[in-house]
Amino acid sequence: MPKASPFLSLLLITTCIAHGAAGDAIAADPWQEPEVVQQPAVVLAGEWQLLHQNTGVSAMHMQLLPGDYVLMFDRTDSGPSNISLDALSPCAAAAPTAAGGGGGAVDCTAHSVLLDLRSNALRPYPLATNPWCSSAALLPNGTLLQTGGFSNGDRIARLFSPSTGWVDLPSFLAVRRWYATDILLADGRVLILGGRRQFNFEFFPHDDMPQLTLFPFLDETTDMDAEDNLYPFLHLLPDGAIFVFANDRAVVFDPYNRGPIRRLPAIPGGVPRNYPSSGSSVLLPLRPDSPSHAEVLVCGGAPRGAYRLALRNGTFVPADRTCGRIAPTDANPVWAMEEMPLPRVMGDMVLLPTGEVLIVNGAATGTAGWELGREPVTYPVLYKPDMELGARFEVLTASNIPRMYHSSATLDTLGRVLVGGSNPHVGYVFDNVTYPTELSLEAFLPPYFDARLDGVRPRLVAAPADVGYGEAAAVRFEVPGGAVSGGPEEVRVAAVAPAFATHSFGMNQRVVSLAVGTVAQLDAGLYEAQVAAPPSPSVAPPGYYLWFVLHAGVPSSGEWVRMRPLGAAT
């Protein structure tokens, strides 16, 4: 069993939690006057599986790719990794580390690996430039666009596919991008926004000369001592506008006319939610019965000033435990606040095919940054957005591996959540530290993997290879028990866009529920559902999605379906 955190005593109902002050400062004693908060009893649902004890690299960045591959990569300046390049890959001069070492040495180790989900095999890939704290988006053709980083990588755009490996586009970016965010737009372009001291955005692809557009909102939301607005949360809304959250504020803007639409209310409490006070955020699933409506969820973070206290005084302030939920598409959006069972900073939020949200990884005190987090939160929490307020959170089975700074998590084709990374050190450090560099890869199986649900678990037999917007499509599936439980209304289909996961944010992850028409029985236990593809590229940008069939609330494994760009040939 994992070591118990002071924030969760197994099977106890009450816990004393101290909240940091909401404002520009924190009380000198952050533990004074603790508030007693009622918690639900712990429910030990879900299961952990160890896929690899040693992947060779610490998974700072993670992306699921079409074809059932998972790309994991780290910095190139942290010293040698634990996996060698193959004999055909050239060695490179090791980059200087943040501590000043490395330059001049020859590095014959890999800093990126590709996991084949079908065989569980790992393949190393060479990385020529440093992608430390970079951003990415999956292009409509299935290639990963990866942008920025540090040192020799800060103005690089990179393309990755399993067949070609990494291809650098030197000096593609107009400015250095470190801690920026990428988002795929409805027209198939990628918006690249922000980064350290970059209050602007640009696009991929661009004409001969990259064009910068100023974005003053990022300047306005910069805290002098900690920034607290790096890796801004970006979500594409179903009207084509972009929701941007930075620090504790949000705006909606038009990326095509490059102008603001409106400012939204600040999230109550004044708690920063972006790096290094790293909370997380998701766009909740879009539904066919209200295609123009969208809701955003933002959870966790660290009180203002927590980074300064941890860095200068070694004082680790309790993380925030609140979530804010807002519908930016409403005429007068307002935040609805609720509390997680556990405080959490550096947590990852992963959308599941059921429409629920898994919150995993992170710490209960401190912030992101080298050695600045304490008290790992090893218990995942399931958020159920359709339940009544007060009944939306469920605490799940804990891992025995702390996942602190530089962890990542993403959904895979089977519906599992892959969890890797954790390295709060400048280099790879395995001994004589509180939280060693973590090279393992786990899979968390959400409660829908419970064997007692096997009798209703569907198996997806056939889905279209590609589909156009608004088109009808047939999806075939089997039900082990032979009969659809509860009738055709118990059948749903969800399209899930895979995320680029890094630094507590899954860029571009998206769940779109599809309208299901008739469900016909073709044979004993075999069914065909007629579904309508997403209505527009603002609801589902072009590219690759995993389609899952859900029967009685239990999802199948996913099948890759490509949403054709508007005007593309069938």
From TrEMBL:
Pfam families: Glyoxal_oxid_N, GO-like_E_set. Residues 60-448 form the Glyoxal oxidase N-terminal domain. CDD domains: E_set_GO_C. The lineage of its organism: Eukaryota, Viridiplantae, Streptophyta, Embryophyta, Tracheophyta. Residues 1-23 form the signal peptide. Coiled coil: none annotated. Residues 457-563 form the Galactose oxidase-like Early set domain. Keywords: Signal. This is Galactose oxidase-like Early set domain-containing protein. InterPro entries: Gal_Oxase/kelch_b-propeller (IPR011043), Gal_Oxidase_central_sf (IPR037293), Glyoxal_oxidase_N (IPR009880), GO-like_E_set (IPR015202), Ig-like_fold (IPR013783), Ig_E-set (IPR014756). It comes from Oryza punctata (Red rice). It comes from the Eukaryota.
